[in-house]
User: Which sequence fits this backbone?
């Protein structure tokens, strides 16, 4: 039997009426699982770190002298044989002095990943480094922004949002 | 991450190639795969929180894992018509897979991708390209343009 009724000029059948409720339940369940996944990561990731976190280093500095650490941040100062790297973690700012293995061309604003040995006074003797020039990492955001606009255009050309059914439907 | 341009163009190229054999990769569905290609980067919402002075990366990191992407894709597919939902979900997963595969190529001094999270905390990376590398996007852009022109010509002829 076709159970159809009119509401605000739209024909809604009984089958469609049931969907939003079950959909809401599924959506809430998925959100809850995602929340659990995130909470599990947040509470456990510290125990599975390969190298100490910035917080650990700052709190127990002496303990980590001579240990290998991994940091990443922005270059805030360049000297003849060293450069200063600012790392931010949990709103905490720490400046490290990096001693590269060989001459490395870095400039203020560049992003650098460093794997090296921690010395006294926040010095790191770099063993491995990856430098991303300022314009290059800013260009990533420019390209991504263009891509986002392009994607919205492509998507909305093929799909439209039906407010009554709260879902995307194909454009004919 | 390679930039979003590389991600969505790789998804477009893949769908265009697959369209030769499988009709399911229509223009509408290609758009879905392209959206899926950005799903793992939901994690980039952390940048907005950064600008507000809040560090949420340690909470939202699982979004950039295969399991997180599957759950996000399932959630997003609920915004589509009931009959098409399974197919939409599969297409989103295909897109997310291209994203994770591209990110797997990235080079870091340590760490990598949590491919088996929450079952394992192992991190992997291939260390082939640097995060700011624009050649991937450039090559993808050229390929996508060529494919677009060829497929348009075919449509006109056919």
Assistant:
């Amino acid at each position: 039997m076709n159970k159809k009724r009119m509401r605000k000029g739209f024909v809604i059948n009984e089958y469609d009426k049931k969907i939003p409720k079950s959909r809401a339940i599924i959506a809430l369940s998925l959100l809850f699982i995602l929340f659990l996944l995130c909470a599990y990561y947040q509470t456990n990731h510290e125990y599975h770190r390969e190298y100490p976190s910035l917080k650990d280093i700052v709190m127990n500095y002496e303990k980590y002298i001579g240990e290998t650490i991994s940091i990443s941040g922005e270059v805030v100062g360049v000297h003849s044989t060293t450069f200063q790297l600012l790392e931010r973690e949990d709103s905490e700012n720490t400046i490290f002095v990096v001693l590269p293995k060989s001459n490395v061309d870095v400039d203020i604003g560049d992003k650098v990943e460093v794997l090296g040995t921690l010395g006294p006074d926040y010095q790191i003797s770099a063993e491995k480094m990856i430098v991303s020039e300022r314009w290059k990492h800013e260009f990533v955001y420019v390209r991504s922004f263009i891509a986002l606009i392009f994607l919205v255009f492509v998507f909305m050309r093929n799909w439209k949002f039906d407010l009554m059914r709260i879902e995307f439907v194909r454009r004919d | 991450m390679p930039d979003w341009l590389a991600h969505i163009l790789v998804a477009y190229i893949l769908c265009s190639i697959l369209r030769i054999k499988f009709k399911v990769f229509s223009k509408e569905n290609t758009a879905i795969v392209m959206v899926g290609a950005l799903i793992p980067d939901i994690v980039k919402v952390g940048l907005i929180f950064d600008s507000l002075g809040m560090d949420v990366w340690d909470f939202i990191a699982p979004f950039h894992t295969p399991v997180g992407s599957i759950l996000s894709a399932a959630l997003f597919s609920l915004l589509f018509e009931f009959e098409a939902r399974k197919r939409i979900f599969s297409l989103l997963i295909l897109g997310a897979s291209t994203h994770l595969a591209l990110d797997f190529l990235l080079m870091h001094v340590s760490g990598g991708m949590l491919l088996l999270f929450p079952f394992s905390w192992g991190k992997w990376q291939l260390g082939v390209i640097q995060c700011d590398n624009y050649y991937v996007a450039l090559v993808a852009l050229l390929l996508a343009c060529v494919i677009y022109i060829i497929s348009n010509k075919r449509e006109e002829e056919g």
User: Anything to note?
Assistant: Chain B has a mean pLDDT of 95. Chain B touches chain A through 47 residues (CB under 8 Å). The CA atoms of residues 38 and 139 of chain B lie 19 Å apart. The first helix of chain B runs from residue 4 to 19.
